[in-house]
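quick one, 276 residues, struct below
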Amino acid sequence: MNMMQGLQEITRRDQVFSFMLRADEVVPDTSKGMILYVEDLSVSFDGFKAINDLNLYIREGELRCIIGPNGAGKTTLMDIITGKTRPDTGSVFFGQDINLLQFSEPQIAQIGIGRKFQKPTVFEKHSVFENLELAMAANKRVWPTLTARLSAEQQDRIDDILYQAGLVELKHETASLLSHGQKQWLEIAMLVMQEPRLLLVDEPVAGMTHQEMDKTAELLHSLAGDHSVVVVEHDMDFVRSIASEVTVLHQGSVLAEGTMQQVQDNPQVVEVYLGE
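---
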């Protein structure tokens, strides 16, 4: 099997029309090893082509970084994947068979795609522990039990995620008293509570100290495997510290893709983004 045949086999999809399913009952088919298929995607705003015939494939369990200059289409791509923006043409599939364009933004979150924006949004007046309780409550399947009392299993899950996010000692701290970095970790932990298969993280280290950046890198590495993680980031030192594969966007299309070293050595990338 040559390389092209191999790619065709990996990316081939047998679509199941999912519009008759409830969003929280949808289970993506990842038997080919891919969690996300973005194909031939284009969208224009007032004549400006924000996304231009873009193709992107994300493997299950991988940690992918997406970089590119301002206006490259990074945010628009995230908006389309999460249902906030509808494309003019193209397709977005979760696994081989779940057509995300059939679902609304809230349904896509229920399906198992979580998104963290650059600015952390936590419940400032509640404790760290209560924030994670509230995040768990967003999953309607567990709401009846939460209205009574947390089970031992739910308590253990919160404790595990607190440990993973480095927030154990701040468990009872009011969220408003956390540092910027700690709030970022708390919001990531809140998303993880909802058990997403795919996690989209937008500029997680903006405004962080170097120590906080290192801890964020550890957190994102720990999430990969159990989750697929896509990170949009401008800080190249941070990208180098976490990325096994990098996708470079430019003018709404994929300019280059590969390891950080391959991307750094690409003359086109150097010219349009990284600089000499």
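The chain has a mean pLDDT of 87.
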